[in-house]
């Protein structure tokens, strides 16, 4: 899939099949995160990969809005040794697009940071920035068809030339 197609076709989905992600694909996802540019080339991002059913369920139990994490093939937490939320967002998007290129869906989740820290043994000086579930999409439960789900404002409503 070319980069532009992948970017405009990516959707956040929360319904996954019970199918593991191949190691090669997981490595590409993590590599995409590692290679993301960072402010002053600080490389603040660290990755905690949660695959066990117990670990995923424990994360899912931290928020009623994140129950779907239990069904993900893998959950990756992006933590940072220096807090750079902008860099974490760039990293997350790169990882999700790399996954999508391999036919793997994803969605970020918001979880209480201190509870994630406690659950995963993250040191207090490390910042928790993103939690993302990855998995192969369940076509029966993954949302409306793209033509219906992707109603967007026209570009002309969003773009201003030179000034507002």
Automatic annotation (TrEMBL):
Pfam families: Nitroreductase. The keyword Calcium does not apply. GO terms for molecular function: oxidoreductase activity. Keywords: Oxidoreductase. Residues 11-62, 68-136 form the Nitroreductase domain. InterPro entries: Nitroreductase (IPR029479), Nitroreductase-like (IPR000415). It comes from the Bacteria. Belongs to the nitroreductase family. This is Nitroreductase. It comes from Tepidiforma thermophila (strain KCTC 52669 / CGMCC 1.13589 / G233).
